[in-house]
Amino acid sequence: MNSKGLGNEVSYYIFDYSPRDELIVRQYLEKYKKEIKKLVMVIKIVIYDVYDIMIDLFRRIRIFGKIVLIWKNDGMDYLIESVNSLLKNE
Question: Cβ neighbours of residue 54 under 8 Å, at least 6 residues apart?
Fold first, then answer.
């Protein structure tokens, strides 16, 4: 991961990976953060996990239980359609 720019730019990276690789990716990112912190003290690495953000949102607006029921009763495809509709309206 190399960043080149003119200055005052914020680099960001998006990792798209299979859910089965979740633990590997988390371990890699934690190791990467520690290595960068040792080399350069002024860089701040922030990790946003979209899955965790979505779960927090569902709990905050008190629909997490409904989300689980939709998944169990209607399946993943219907759940994805429902969540996409919800997020477009928020």
Answer: 83
Burial zone of 82 (CB within 10 Å; 0-12 exposed, 13-18 middle, 19+ buried): middle
Output the six-digit token pair for 39.
């080399």
CA 17 to CA 4: how far, in whole Å?
A: 25
CB 70 within 8 A of CB 78: yes
Q: In the numeric block, which tokens belong to residue 29?
A: 């990112």
- Distance in angstroms (rounded) separating the CA atoms of residues 72 and 25: 28
Distance CA 46, CA 72 (A): 33
User: pLDDT digits over 37-86, tens only?
Assistant: 888 777 778 888 888 898 998 999 999 999 999 999 999 999 989 888 87
Tell me the whole-structure pTM to 2 decimals: 0.58
| Closest alpha carbon to 45 in 90, 89, 3, 88 | 3
